[in-house]
Design goal:
Elements lengths: L4 E5 L17 H12 L3 E4 L11 E2 L5 E10 L2 E3 L1 H9 L7 E5 L5 E11 L21 E3 L6 H10 L13 H13 L3 H13 L1 H5 L3 H20 L1 H7 L13 H21 L6 H26 L11 H7 L13 H10 L5 H20 L4
Parallel strand pairs: 1-2, 1-4, 2-3
Antiparallel strand pairs: 4-7, 5-8, 6-7
Helix pairs in contact: 1-2, 4-8, 5-7, 5-9, 7-9, 7-12, 9-10, 9-13, 10-13, 12-13
Length: about 375
């Protein structure tokens, strides 16, 4: 049996501008991109659709198709796992079922054989849903208030991922949504995160409590921004392939650590009244911490296996038979601790946190298996 095709139908009931992106791309482009990944052979645009979908073929009403097909409103968003389940379990040639969203509105029609393009979306009995699938896997963007449901479907595809913000708190998810709708290329966001984290060093060189706190804050912001890039990439991957970009994001944290610990080391060594021996010890530890961070950045930028990656705090706690509290789950644990200690105005405290992180990197390399 031939692979199914996706036919995008116009939604006359839509009261929103379907050309406006939702989390980085339009509903039609997102649905078409997900269908291609799920195994659909082709994307067709029925007469009256207003969406621009690259690689899709425009068809006219009555044009022969003669293939399994999913007809969906261009305003619909359907989770990729549901699309894959449909593609892998085609219907008999004489079967056809409707797919409704969480509000019971018809959003798509799935058939085992589409003879020709219909003038409007057929309505039939509701689909017997595949296992673990249901109306929550699709949403139709008709009114402004539907956007919340559309975003929920889009985010649900990344809930199983451990990276980025797939399971982030609401405030962080709102930031990712804003970045996705901003339309900026991921490369620009990664560069901004890198520059922000690296500026932690010059900020700390300003001296005093203000400089130390400002540097720690910039480090937190840069690392957090880089941490959401993978989740952001999944949201915008239908936008001209930009979602495949993973350029500087993995190196933002080590670059920031190297810059900040280097500046704090200078501040400590330059303090009046410090003996030359103590200064050399501080310089050695600070330089070693910066070197290990830069070595990790080099590994990830070259695509090699990272030898000096920070070990997982959760895994360490599990080895001790403990469990970290839920509120401590964050992409910026180390940086937040450094920021909290920087408020004291003593450069040695955040410096000690970053040196401790460097020693953890060294331990990770020391116990890692060969090869």
């Amino acid at each position: 049996m031939s692979a199914p095709v996706l036919v995008l139908m116009p939604d006359a009931e839509a009261r929103v501008d379907l050309a406006r992106p939702v989390l980085g791309t339009t509903t039609a482009v997102r649905l078409a991109d997900a269908a291609r990944r799920a195994g659909f052979a082709e994307v067709l645009l029925a007469p009256g659709t207003c969406s621009i979908v690259h690689g899709a073929r425009a068809v006219s009403s009555g044009e022969p198709i003669a293939a399994p097909a999913l007809l969906a409103f261009e305003s619909a968003v359907i989770a990729e796992p549901l699309l894959r389940a449909l593609a892998e379990h085609p219907l008999a040639a004489d079967e056809g079922y409707s797919l409704g969203d969480g509000l019971g509105r018809p959003s798509a029609w799935w058939t085992g054989h589409l003879a020709c393009v219909p003038a409007e979306l057929p309505i039939a009995e509701e689909l017997p849903w595949p296992a673990d699938r249901g109306p929550a896997d699709l949403a139709r963007y008709v009114y402004d208030e539907d956007r919340v449901r559309v975003e929920a479907v889009i985010w649900s595809e990344g809930e199983g991922a451990a990276e980025g913000a797939a399971s982030a708190p609401g405030w962080l998810r709102a930031i990712v949504n804003r970045l996705a709708d901003g339309g900026r290329p991921l490369g620009q966001i990664e560069l901004a995160a890198t520059m922000t984290a690296v500026l932690a060093g010059p900020a700390a060189l300003l001296g005093g409590r203000l400089g130390i706190v400002l540097g720690a804050a910039l480090l937190c912001i840069g690392v957090q921004l880089a941490a959401v890039v993978p989740a952001l990439a999944r949201l915008v991957r239908g936008r001209g392939g930009a979602g495949d970009v993973q350029w500087l994001a993995p190196a933002v944290r080590p670059f920031g650590h190297a810059a900040y610990v280097g500046a704090l080391t200078y501040a400590l060594v330059a303090e009046a009244g410090r003996s030359s021996v103590a200064g050399l010890v501080l310089l050695g530890f600070g330089a070693g911490a910066a070197f290990l961070s830069l070595a990790h950045a080099r590994d990830v930028l070259r695509g090699e296996r990272p030898r000096f990656e920070l070990p997982s705090a959760d895994a360490f706690a599990a080895r001790l038979g403990a469990r970290l509290p839920a509120w401590s789950h964050s992409d910026v644990r180390v940086e937040v601790v450094a920021l909290a200690l920087a408020v004291t105005g003593a450069p040695g405290l955040p410096w000690g946190v970053l040196v401790g992180a460097a020693l953890a990197r060294l331990w990770r390399w020391f116990i890692a298996p060969r090869g």
